[in-house]
């Protein structure tokens, strides 16, 4: 190995050292590198010494690789801490109402349903329909024209005859007239969070009362 160090530099010596120590699992490549570098310094030819700049370059490369490894470890720890914080934040939402992009609402035995129509431009003749699971219109609410922005919608749970609709899932469908076309409008609804699921990759999913699931990032507002 000394001959290899004298004659050809650290690359060849490192290859030989790896072959000789393949069964020595306790010795890391970092230690091998440093040991070889010291050996190279001790065994260099006095009549033809290695360039000092080459040693500095090798040390700089080693330091860079080691720094990247430490940075990766630190980023992993930071990511794990962030995921833990997300999980803690999500569990605090259980039992609370959040607003998400959806059309499915949950009507309880008492109380009302809230939602919003999101308008990116002025729209005329806005109509909001509440449909049951069979697609039948239970209630229709006209809102007329509205400028760009948000239109708050509340359904008191009563059908067109003024009778309380059965508890269950309903669909909130909003349409409007833009130009000469009738377009479907984006809606956000308020839904209670029933539980939280933590994925194997650290992702956090909220399981909602309307039997849908959304990532934590999908929450637009907490009521």
Can you put this structure into words, describing what you see?
With 223 residues, the chain is of the alpha+beta class. It is built from four helices and twelve strands; from the N terminus they run ααααββββββββββββ. The strands form two sheets. Strands 1, 3, 6, 9, 10, 11 and 12 form a seven-stranded antiparallel beta sheet that branches. Strands 2, 4, 5, 7 and 8 form a five-stranded antiparallel beta sheet that branches. Strand 4 and strand 5 form a beta hairpin. Helix 1 (2-8) runs antiparallel to helix 2 (10-20) and helix 2 packs across helix 3. It is elongated, with a radius of gyration of 33 Å. The relative contact order is 0.15. Residues 2-8 have low confidence and may be disordered.
Q: List segments where confidence is low: pLDDT < 50 over at least 5 consecutive residues.
A: 2-8
Percentage beta strand: 35-45%
Count of individual helical segments? 4
Q: Rough shape?
A: elongated
Average of pLDDT:
78
Report the C-alpha radius of gyration, rounded: 33 Å
The computed structural class is alpha+beta
Order of helices and strands: HHHHEEEEEEEEEEEE
Main beta sheet: strand number and arrangement?
7 strands, antiparallel
Q: Which percent bin holds the helix content?
A: 25-40%
For the secondary structure, the number of strands is: 12
The termini sit apart by: 72 Å
């Amino acid at each position: 190995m000394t001959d290899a160090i004298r004659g050809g530099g650290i690359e060849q010596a490192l290859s030989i050292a790896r072959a000789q120590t393949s069964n020595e699992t306790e010795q890391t490549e970092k230690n091998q590198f440093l040991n070889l570098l010291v050996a190279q310094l001790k065994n260099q030819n006095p009549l033809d010494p290695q360039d000092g700049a080459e040693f500095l370059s090798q040390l700089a490369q080693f330091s860079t690789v080691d720094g990247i490894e430490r940075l990766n470890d630190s980023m992993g720890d930071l990511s794990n801490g962030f995921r833990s914080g997300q999980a803690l934040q999500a569990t605090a939402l259980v039992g609370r109402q959040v607003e998400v992009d959806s059309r499915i609402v949950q009507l309880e035995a008492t109380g009302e349903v809230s939602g919003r129509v999101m308008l990116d431009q002025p729209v005329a003749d806005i109509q909001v329909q509440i449909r049951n699971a069979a697609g039948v219109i239970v209630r229709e609410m006209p809102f007329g024209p509205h400028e760009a922005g948000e239109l708050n919608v509340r359904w008191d749970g009563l059908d067109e005859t003024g009778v309380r609709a059965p508890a269950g899932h309903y669909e909130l469908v909003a349409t409007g007239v833009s130009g000469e076309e009738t377009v479907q409008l984006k809606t956000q609804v308020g839904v209670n969070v029933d539980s939280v699921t933590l994925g194997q990759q650290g992702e956090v999913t909220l399981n909602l009362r309307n039997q849908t699931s959304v990532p934590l990032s999908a929450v637009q507002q907490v009521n």
